[in-house]
Amino acid sequence: MFKGVQVKKYKNNRKLYAIELSKYINQSELADLFLEGRGIIVRTHDTNEDITVMTLVSALASVGYFDGQIKDKNLANIQQNLTDRGYIINGNK
Question: What's the CA gap between 16 and 30, in Å, rounded?
């Protein structure tokens, strides 16, 4: 069972709704949740398509989190998130 934060992205207004937090969040808050080590899954509201990677990269880039100091932490969190979702098994795609 997934223990992180599930987020629904609405196409018409591009809002992000964090289900477990019961509130709308912005890209900065999404990036902060990720950097805290929380697992995140982002899906479109209308089609339920998984758009986690695209949304996280956009959120992190928009708030400047791809600087040299925390690049390794970001990559480790991305790898862990993908592993948790079954995209990476034992370090392999």
Answer: 9
Q: What does residue 8 show for φ and ψ, rounded to 5 degrees?
A: -105, 130
What pLDDT digit, counting tens, does each position of 46-65 carry?
999 999 988 988 888 877 76
pTM: 0.67
Token digits of residue 22: 């019961």
d(CA 18, CA 3) in angstroms, rounded, equals 13
Residue 81 · residue 40 · CB < 8 Å:
yes
Q: What is the mean pLDDT of the chain?
A: 82
Q: Which residues pair with 89 in a beta bridge?
A: 92
DSSP string, 3-53: -SEEEEE-TTT--EEETTTTEEE-HHHHHHHHHTT--EEEEETTT--B-HH
d(CA 15, CA 25): 8
Q: What are the residues whose beta carbons fall under 8 Å from the beta carbon of 79, sequence distance 6 or more? A: 88
